[in-house]
Amino acid sequence: MKRIIPIFFFLILVFFFNSCERKEYTEEGIKEIVEEINVKLEKAVGEEFNWGSPEAYSLFRAYFSEDGKLMFINESYTYRKPAESFNRYYIKDGNLLHIISRKMEYISDKKSGKGKKMMINIEFYSDPDENILLYDKIVNKERVTLNDDEAEEIFRHVDELKEIVNKREIIQ
Fold it and tell me: Could you tell me if 143 and 136 are in contact, meaning their C-beta atoms sit under 8 angstroms apart?
């Protein structure tokens, strides 16, 4: 009986620490992490990088925590068509947790020859498994749904940026 009590106590502690660890990836927990990153950004120094594809190119600055882990990317993304976006990615332990994206696109009407501006704002919170917990997408002041393909494209792009940053760290 005396051996069972310490084992039982140990199991309770293990369960408690595991449950506390997973709680940080709730909606509120991720918002707290984002606030912590914002505080750390006041003292952080960024490093500049470039990315390009046939469809677009970007200049971005990566910021690292005191222990050298990537925590934030600030990106200026320019499309080959007349459009640009400004994106902020919050990252913890290599996982995208929050994005704020502001895109301005110019669309021309071939019949009238006139153009119009389209504003697209996307903001979402996601867990480390890339499940979106909360999102907001607004196109020209109208709330619309964020489809799975768009979300997948964002995650893929952030992975490419992280890969560029990681390769650069290896070279240095």
Answer: yes
φ/ψ of 102, rounded to 5, equals: -125, 115
Tell me the β-bridge partners of 96: 91
The number of beta carbons lying within 10 Å of the beta carbon of residue 17 is 10
Model pLDDT, residue 3:
61
- Asked whether the beta carbons of 89 and 161 are under 8 A apart, the reply is yes
pLDDT tens figures, 16-45: 555 454 447 888 999 999 999 999 999 888
Which pTM value belongs to this model? 0.81
- Where are the alpha helices (H) located in the chain, listed in sequence order? 4-23, 27-41, 148-171
Pick from 129, 123, 124: nearest CA to 25: 129
Environment class of residue 138 by beta-carbon count within 10 Å: exposed (0-12), middle (13-18) or buried (19+)?
middle
How large a percentage of the chain has pLDDT more than 70?
Answer: 84
Single-letter residue type at 132: I
Residue-level length of the chain: 172
Helix (H, G, I), strand (E, B) or coil at 112: coil
